[in-house]
Amino acid sequence: MQDQNTQISALTELNEELENYFSNTIIPQLFVDAQLILRKFTPPAMKQFNLKQEFVGKHLDEIKENFRYPTIIDNIKTVIATGKILQKEIQTTDMHWYQMNILPYVVRRENKTNGVIITFVDITPRILDLKEQEKLIAEHELLLDTIAHDIKNPLLSLGLTIEMLRKLPEKSVEKFPELLEHVESSLKQMKKVINDLVETRWQEHRYQAANELLDIQNILEDVRLSLAPQILESGAVIHEEIGISQIRFVRRKLRSVIYNLVNNAIKYTPANRNPEIFIRSYQEGNKMVISVSDNGIGMSKAEQDSIFEKFQRVRLTGEGSGVGLYLVHTIIATAGGKITVESQPGQGSVFKVFLVLDTDK
């Protein structure tokens, strides 16, 4: 009898300790038995999942919506069946992130799993911090890719101009001033890229240049000047039809988008025909659409599906690293826009850029 009283006293003390623990812990915790009946929960769980005292004794099927995590019952069943701890990062329907730990509750004398204890540790701030770090890493990578790409373009123009200078007859000097101007323009572009890098490095705006009110005509003129050697050598003809001309955007980024599309239109035109490029702009809903069509080599459906991926190229001939269209796609997507392509092999391509208009301005 005395032994029985001692055991009852020990169990009572143990139960009080358990009650004290569940009452004072700052972590949301649940105790669910093997029949999926909710037996206990901590005050933080009550607050976090809107649990009420009358929920104790109910089957989880009746209250599973409170946990805002659809597979919680399946996860509990797995732990009960296997006796193994389950740990996973979950996102609930209210967009919070948790480290969820489901531990088997083992009855030692029977060596049997008789339920689970579930803990939820809110890791939302850590996840958000990681996402911010991933964003910064992506911005760093985009910046480096852009710099490498932007330096490569004037270098290519410079090389073409020098090649044309070499081919000039000794007495033919009338084209010399024009070609020299192209050399100076390429050097200025490289200097600007380097200056932008230095300025970006020392400013604390995380590589985010400011939007400004831009005129598409001015951007197109800048692109024409930058591509002057390629236009001259290929005999390219560029037509413009500007229906809407103003948009708030980052100048360097919009210039890079149009430059890459026009440069590709020239580059990917067969040698036996002169490139003919049509650039149009018009409004569609709350977006400005910039369309660049060409009479180039065109693309198959499979090629269209991969051209915006990094280091992917339509053809492996000629200059190029497969970064240009990846940068274009990244710039546009980051700004909340999109880019599409329509093309058939041998019949040219049409790229359409959709940029959100700032209707409040």
Protein model, in words:
The protein is α+β, with helices and mostly antiparallel strands and 361 residues long. The chain has 2 domains: 2-122, PAS domain (Beta-Lactamase); 128-356, Heat Shock Protein 90 (2-Layer Sandwich). Helices cover 46% and strands 22% of the residues. The protein contains 11 helices and 12 strands. It has helices spanning 2-24, 43-48, 60-63, 72-82, 124-167, 176-202, 216-226, 228-234, 251-267, 301-306, 324-334; strands spanning 29-33, 38-41, 86-91, 97-107, 112-122, 212-215, 237-242, 246-249, 276-284, 287-293, 338-343, 349-356. A 5-stranded antiparallel sheet has the order 2-1-5-4-3, with helices on both faces. Strand 11 and strand 12 form a beta hairpin. Helix 5 (124-167) runs antiparallel to helix 6, helix 5 (124-167) packs across helix 8 and helix 9 packs antiparallel against helix 11. The longest helix has 44 residues, at 124-167. The protein is elongated, with a radius of gyration of 32 Å. The termini are far apart.
What is the fold's blueprint, element by element?
Elements: H1 2-24, E1 29-33, E2 38-41, H2 43-48, H3 60-63, H4 72-82, E3 86-91, E4 97-107, E5 112-122, H5 124-167, H6 176-202, E6 212-215, H7 216-226, H8 228-234, E7 237-242, E8 246-249, H9 251-267, E9 276-284, E10 287-293, H10 301-306, H11 324-334, E11 338-343, E12 349-356
Parallel strand pairs: 7-9
Antiparallel strand pairs: 1-2, 1-5, 3-4, 4-5, 6-8, 9-10, 10-12, 11-12
Helix pairs in contact: 5-6, 5-8, 7-9, 9-11
